[in-house]
DNA topoisomerase
Amino acid sequence: MSNTLVIVESPAKCKKIESYLGPGYKCIASFGHIRQLSSLKNIDIHNNFQPTFELIDDKKKIMHVDFLRKEIALSEDIILATDDDREGEAIAWHICDLFGLPIDSTKRIVFHEITENAIQSAVRYPRKIDMNKVHSQQARQILDLLVGFTVTPMLWKYISQTSEHSLSSGRCQTPALRIIYDNQVEINNAPQQKVYNTIGYFTTKCIPFELNKQFENEIEVTEFLEESANFQHIYTRSSVECVLKQPPEPLTTSRIQQVASNEMHISPKETMKLCQTLYEAGYITYMRTDSKKYSDEFIETAKKYITQQYNHDKYIHPYVHLLSNKEANNIEEKKEKKEIKKKNNLVSQNAHEAIRPTNIIMKTIPDNMKPREKRLYQIIWQTTIESCMAPAEYLTFKNKISTYINNVYYSSSSELPHFLGWKIINHKNNSEKEKEYHYFQQLKSNRDVEYVKIISKCILKNQKQHYTEAKLVQLLEEYGIGRPSTFSSLVEKVQERGYVKKQDIEGKSIACLDFELDEDTITKINIVKDFGAEKNKLVIQPLGILAIEFLNTHFDSIFNYDYTKNMENELDKVCKDEVIWHEVCRTCFYEVNQLCQTLQEGQHEKYSVKIDNAHTYMMGKYGPVIKYVGMDSNNTNKNIVTFLPAKTDGVDLKKLEQGLYTVDELILEKSINQVELGQYRGFPLLLKKGKYGLYATWGNNSKSLQTLGNRPLVNITLEEVLDIIETSSSTSVISAPGIIRIISNDISIRQGKYGDYIFYKTKKMTKPLFLKLDGFKEDYKICNKECFISWFSKEHIAL
């Protein structure tokens, strides 16, 4: 029996793939990339940017490379089954190059769903490594290094070289930050204005109608309501029309991230993690895609399912064939007949598809999957089946009620489902809406109607909102910044750097005056309203503003949206063998070098803003600080220099530069020499700064924290301090009163500042791990210990 080795990227796929291929096949994982370009020294700029790759400097990765080498040597045949994107193609090439496998003859397979049919079909139709894809990926790596490693030192030189959130620029990271910055500028410059929206409640059923005019002040509102009190309002109705409501489009990477954010309130990163689990379990197709097409086989299956479920083929979309990859390929072939034979050599299952269930009959997945995984699968299933179904048809008409002002009227619309189409999937009867539709149908047009009451409410006009993570992903796609596989990492990166923070925004309290006309009496209502409050939005921080404004000023030509989009298009052309990869690198290299040279020839000082004669706002090693130069508290030294931690939230750099802040408004806290972190051993755990550096105290005990350096106290967490205290020889796990429950010699439940957590430390470990209790459904204080250990092994660390 032959001995064939299949190499994938993720180990989670291996057992399932082996079960589908049967005896004679062994599946192992590369665990992602195995080699890297670590610096510009790895690129021979004078030799067409030839890269010199090196093994990723990680002990586990190096050991795994040895394992791969042994497995490859023991195998008669090698099949490379890394993911079907540029990164996957590059990993396949690296495996060949590193282990001496022939690139022209080593089998390369791709699949977009982990099902028996897809895997076996892929093995029957292998192909060669696509070197155009490999060159495109390598060009992207080189471009990222050229931009990042050349421009980032300029940020360090002219703003700050921080430690905790190291300043950096990036070919796609910086335009992503610019999107958030541009939105913040629009928010700041939006000419907010108080206006009045008016709703009239008419007929005996007190049905609301909205006025098509906003009033700008209280005088206009009062005049309108006074005139309305004695006006004879006339009701009219338009003719009935049939309106189509189109089904949702198939799910792409960016779209699933947006839908999951709206429906499940989770981040793009978490969404992709859940999708990865569903994909590796064989429930959905590959999740990194910008395709809105399905395989021809799937469309046929979906058509059968829809017909069987709803007993008629009228529920199938009349143009469902346009969602087929086969149809898309036919259109492409008409445009370009070049290399048709090569393209058609691939089976239809290997064409890129939108994200979909692998089995449309399966509405839900088994109960052994986690709740979020089940919810996301349900969203994918529902959207997929809806996208293949016919548009919904509604009968609709508009209702109007006149006012004394020409072309100013109240309006509402009425609709009745005529054919549910795709909406039948999640249809809920709305009897009130249907009754309202029939009521207006029976109400004669051009007749008088009486108002019940008319209300004018004060609102704030032209309010722009901050972006959610999902909205940022949508804009990255629209602007052509990055690709599906990089969207979530770009959203994470701008936050990791300290440029952007996901946070709640407090609203502004504004005194307002609302009006209500009831019968012929106008009532004025004084009310304080909050405007502009937002939750979980991306807010650019002072550090991000400094970085992006500096880069916009000096490197706009390589970080503007068009340049970034064009560069992505050039990389796509490399994939199609339309452009030589190193020419793309050369063009970018000369542009970046020229911009850096121009910057260094000018006169530029490091960023700082003088607040008064003694205080200066600047960027320190761990974020913004206030530099104080002057006398100490005893007035004995006129040359003392102290750095006080500055606020990061809510600081307007324009106001700062205009001298509109006092020192007290900018200092993060006044008592900066002591911070209470929480409770430890029944005592408050205090973090202090003394003559010889940082130290912690609890009760009559103290512990030096010199390993934390001279960091601001507010940047140090309870977990960091506990790590030092509890790993010292003088601290025993068993004797610590902060323990809620001891599970085993290595595991205990403890109480922390932010809630209970798992403390895990074996005798061989030098530092403990602090793990979350999220997901444990029983009461961990009284549950069976074996039950907890079993959950711990599955959720965190196998014991």
Q: What stands out?
A: Confidence is low (pLDDT under 50) at residues 331-350, 632-636, 729-735. The two ends are 36 Å apart (CA to CA).
